[in-house]
Design a protein that fits this description.
The complex is a heterodimer of chains A (about 425) and B (about 425). By secondary structure, chain A is mainly α. Chain A has a domain of about 230 residues. Chain A has 17 helices and no strands. Chain A is globular and about 70 Å long. The termini of chain A are close together. Chain B is mainly alpha-helical. Chain B has two domains: about 100 residues, no CATH class; about 270 residues, ABC transporter involved in vitamin B12 uptake, BtuC. Helix content of chain B is about 70%, strand content about 5%. Chain B is built from 16 helices and five strands. Chain B has a three-stranded mixed β-sheet with strand order 2-1-3. The longest helix of chain B has 28 residues. Chain B is globular. The chains are: A mainly alpha (about 425), B mainly alpha (about 425). At the A-B interface, α8, α9, α14 and α16 of A face α7, α14 and α16 of B.
């Protein structure tokens, strides 16, 4: 801890730039995450082909028919990834045809069908944006919020409670209240570890893990007890229509205002982190708590504040999923969003705009995975594998540099936001 | 990092806090448990497993109300003593508090009923086993300065490999060995990332967890589900009663009539305790975790020590993974470890990074786990979920340092650069 030195501010200015042009200007800052994703997908392809019975059989006959072995491998990978990206982005030709039909006849059925996959990806990306931002804010303050998973669940429960218990309110009051319910529940779940860290020095990693499990148990109880809907299944009642985030298109397209809200919040967090004193203090504490303390920054307040914001964002993530998509909450609702968020924050370099891009990518991967499972028989868990690999590669850029023979960049990035 | 100097003011505050807590709990016992029972009620604790113990001892019959009065009195008296004079040892305080409260609660919950104490204790030991192995993995890794939160993922890998190996070879001992080696392999990946590439240890652990859940679920739905009989049906290691010892009343069925993994765990606790605190190897391990620079100066190979200790930890986690499959049900289910790796982490902290402490905490957590099952049977109006929360809440309280400070090794989680 003591060997960290205080960095002067010149690098500070660069920190808030997230410029795609960096790729072409040869800055490795953006190139490395892209290569990490690429490598993850390549290894994913190897796993897909390597566990395919047809491919294995073809390779057993490699010496009789080498061409067949390669063909089988290619077919296996192409089918899987074709289904994955087809299922998440749709077919461009169908989309164009859909637009033509719509403009010539005014019939939007074909268009809606064609854009269904891509809207589903955006729907999936929405909670990822919030959750990724949650973890990123923590990182910026030097805190590792592993508890986004529990905060997500608590947020979902908070918003669903407001959503179904209040009836007869106009939407412009009910919906914000339901969102606030989610934010408050998540923020509370984040504030506790933040306070314990600030006040007692208790490690936030362990405490957020503990809060996750306390949250899971609490939700088990709530869903089987006080919040259980009439019936056998341990689920809540549906929220009132006035608490729902409106959808853009008729069913079955589920993309909703949550997505726009996510983009707005991302911009808000960018502004907060890089354009306000509050954000400056949070980042200073993250870069070097000792230096921040001697500069007169209130460490306790910033730790708690960062965890409240982080938890609130994770709660909002859960709320957006409830209010925009599911409209009720059941067991296992968090389904890994909080852990995926860690990968997203890392991939997005804890920058709000980077987080949005990373979340869109994960929305595409997760959105298409279901189709890949039904068409190509590849379990959706392949996405978790790719995700785990991406985390490893992003966190250990030396592996990527070694793989692609990239010369190490000068060590200007010595001060990473680390938990 | 922590201020180790004695601060009399804080000492006094803690002493008074403890006194107040003890008295409040004593009053709770009085009001909740003692007053709500009737004079004639009797609680019967079964002390025999009926597995042919040599000597069957009579069941313990306790008059419900008087017993609760006595326990409440003990708590209040102890609290008063704590306010006036006080004992230093936190463990004594915790022990008195926990024993009296749990006992009072059980006597109350099982009033007018018969309750197999031995059965519950023996299931506590079994349930504590995977938690203890995860905790031991944490202890040895963190003593060497490497945080490993990827225990959960490591256990999943090992659980799956052991069931596949066990089913294909029809030899459960080979399956056990495979699990241990898998644990070591996964841990070495973590060690490689954090030591060689200086990846943040929490991030690497998270990646191991995500990969563990991802890969095992992938393999499970791609292969195991379709080939249950040829890949996912290993059978289980048989329980093995130790001759003579298993005939001792109470202790026999609880401790000496178990599967090999349970015995192995107890043995490993003892071995690790000796190795860690009474051998040069252990001294070096702890030096590397507390002050790697000093250790390096004295000629200890910091990196090597860390690699090896993390891998040994992985072996413990691997054994813990095997408990879930060949040790209990004989098949693999997706994410079947259900957070035991994380409870292990909690047990490690609660046990203050010592093997014996970690095992004791695991027993307590195992006890809480089996208690909640029993409570559902006894139909006490307390939701079992709250008991399941207890280990996590206790850990968070311990981490605050209000009751008995738990201090991690000084260089825990920090990469070492020469």
């Amino acid at each position: 801890m003591t060997d960290k030195t205080v960095k002067p501010t010149p690098s500070e200015k660069k920190d808030d730039k997230f410029d795609l042009r960096q790729i072409f200007e040869g800055s490795y800052n953006t190139l490395l995450p892209l290569l990490a994703i690429f490598t993850g997908l390549v290894i994913g392809a190897i796993v897909i082909a390597g566990t395919d019975a047809t491919v294995i059989a073809a390779w057993k006959n490699f010496f009789q028919a080498p061409g067949a072995a390669f063909a089988a491998t290619w077919t296996s990978i192409a089918t899987a990834y074709g289904a994955l990206f087809g299922g998440s982005l749709g077919n461009p030709r169908d989309i164009v045809a859909g637009f033509q039909t719509y403009f010539s006849t005014g019939d939007n059925a074909a268009l809606l069908k064609a854009i269904y996959p891509i809207t589903e990806s955006l729907t999936t990306a929405t909670p990822y944006i919030f959750a990724g931002l949650a973890v990123a804010v923590g990182f910026r303050c030097g805190l590792f919020n592993i508890g986004a998973e529990g905060q997500f669940f608590m947020g979902a429960l908070g918003s669903v409670f407001v959503g179904y218990s209040l009836q007869g309110l106009p939407a412009f009051i009910h919906l914000p209240l339901a969102l606030l319910g989610g934010i408050a529940a998540g923020a509370l779940w984040g504030a506790i570890p933040g306070y314990l860290k600030a006040k007692f020095g208790a490690h936030e990693v362990v405490n957020t893990i503990m809060m996750n499990w306390i949250g899971f148990r609490l939700s088990d109880w709530l869903l089987n007890g006080p919040m259980k809907s009439p019936g056998f299944r341990p689920v809540t009642r549906n929220i009132a229509e006035s608490a729902q985030l409106p959808h853009f298109f008729p069913d079955p397209l589920r993309v909703n205002w949550g997505f726009i809200l996510a983009l707005l919040v991302a911009w808000l967090i960018y502004w907060l982190l890089f354009k306000t004193t509050i954000g400056f203090e949070i980042r200073t504490v993250g870069a070097n708590p000792d230096a921040a303390k001697y500069a007169g920054v209130n460490i306790v307040r910033n730790f708690v504040l960062a965890m409240v914001i982080s938890g609130g964002l994770a709660g909002l993530s859960g709320a957006s999923q409830v209010l925009g998509v599911d409209h009720w909450v059941g067991q296992g609702f968090s389904a890994g969003y909080g852990f995926d968020a860690i990968a997203i924050a890392l991939l997005g370099k804890s920058h709000p705009f980077g987080v949005v891009l990373a979340a869109l990518l994960f929305g595409v991967l997760r959105g298409g995975a279901t189709r890949m499972q039904s068409l190509a028989g590849i379990p959706v868990d392949i996405i978790s594998i790719i995700q785990g690999l991406v985390i490893v590669f992003v966190a250990a850029p030396d592996i990527i540099r070694w793989l692609y023979r990239i010369r190490p960049a000068e060590h200007k990035q010595a001060l990473q936001s680390r938990g | 990092m922590m201020n180790t100097k004695k601060n009399p003011e804080i000492d006094m505050r803690t002493r008074i806090a403890w006194g107040v807590v003890l008295i409040v709990v004593g009053l709770l016992v009085l009001f909740l448990f003692a007053f709500s029972t009737e004079a004639g009620q009797v609680t019967k604790f079964g002390l025999n497993e009926a597995k042919g113990e040599a000597i069957t001892i009579p069941d313990l019959l306790l008059p419900t109300q008087p017993t609760n009065y006595v326990l409440a009195l003990i708590l209040i008296a102890f609290g008063a003593f704590q306010l006036a004079r006080g004992v230093k040892s936190t463990s004594t305080l915790v022990a008195v508090l926990a024993f009296s409260f749990v006992m009072a609660f059980l006597v109350w919950a099982a009033r007018d009923k018969s309750f197999s104490l031995v059965g519950m204790l023996s299931s506590s030991v079994v349930r504590a086993t995977p938690i203890a192995l995860a905790a031991l993995c944490g202890v040895i890794s963190e003593r060497a300065g490497v945080t490993n939160i990827g225990i959960e993922g490591t256990m999943l890998f090992a659980a799956q490999v052991s069931v596949i190996v066990g089913t294909t070879t029809h030899n459960l001992w080979i399956a056990l060995l495979a699990a241990i080696l898998t644990g070591a392999a996964v841990a070495s990946l973590h060690a490689f990332l954090v030591i060689k590439f200086k990846v943040d240890q929490i991030i690497s652990g998270t990646a191991v967890n995500i990969l563990g859940a991802g890969v095992t679920s992938f393999v499970s739905s791609r292969f195991l589900e379709k080939n249950i009989d040829t890949l996912n049906n290993s059978g289980t290691l048989p329980a093995f009663a130790i001759p003579l010892l298993s005939k001792i009343p109470v202790l026999g069925p609880v401790l000496f009539d178990n599967t090999p993994i349970v015995y192995l765990t107890i043995l490993l606790v003892a071995v690790l305790h000796v190795v860690l605190f009474y051998t040069p190897w252990g001294l070096r391990t702890r030096a590397v975790g507390e002050h790697p620079k000093a250790a390096d100066t004295l000629g200890v190979n910091v990196y090597l020590m860390r690699y090896i200790n993390v891998m040994i930890g992985g072996m413990f986690a691997g054994l813990g993974g095997a408990y879930f499959t060949v040790g209990s049900v004989g098949r693999f289910d997706e994410v079947m470890t259900a957070g035991k790796g994380f409870i292990g982490l909690a047990a490690m902290i609660f046990g203050k990074w010592t093997p014996i402490g970690a095992y004791t905490s695991s027993l307590i957590f195992g006890f809480a786990d089996s208690l909640q099952v029993k409570l559902q049977i006894l139909k006490v109006g307390i939701p079992p979920e709250f008991l399941l929360m207890a280990p996590y809440i206790v850990t968070m309280i311990v981490l605050t340092g209000v009751v008995g400070k738990a201090v991690a090794p000084a260089a825990d989680g920090q990469p070492y650069e020469k």
